[in-house]
Amino acid sequence: MNAVKRCFQIDSRDNVATLLEDAEQGPVEVLGATRGGIEIAEPIEMGHKVALQAIAEGALVMKYGVPIGIAARAILRGEWVHLHNCRSQVDQRSSAFDPHSGAATDAVYE
User: pTM for the complete prediction?
Assistant: First the structure.
């Protein structure tokens, strides 16, 4: 029997929540500031963020009640929010990082 996976929303202004365990596509319980449920669109690893609502391209990604980045493209409710669809407000290179390793994809190695 598979228990419903969980994520945690820190502040009611947050449009993302953090997964408390690895989760496959399907239902996830939202704990914290807002309680309820969400269907995640893809597998998301523990510690990573899921969009609690649609986030428009260029809109702020909110966590801890403060902006932590900008949506680099439209993000759907239930999608994984990470380096592939979120960029830094201060580091323009952040959108060129590999989402799994964090390595800069624009670096030339010889």
Answer: 0.79
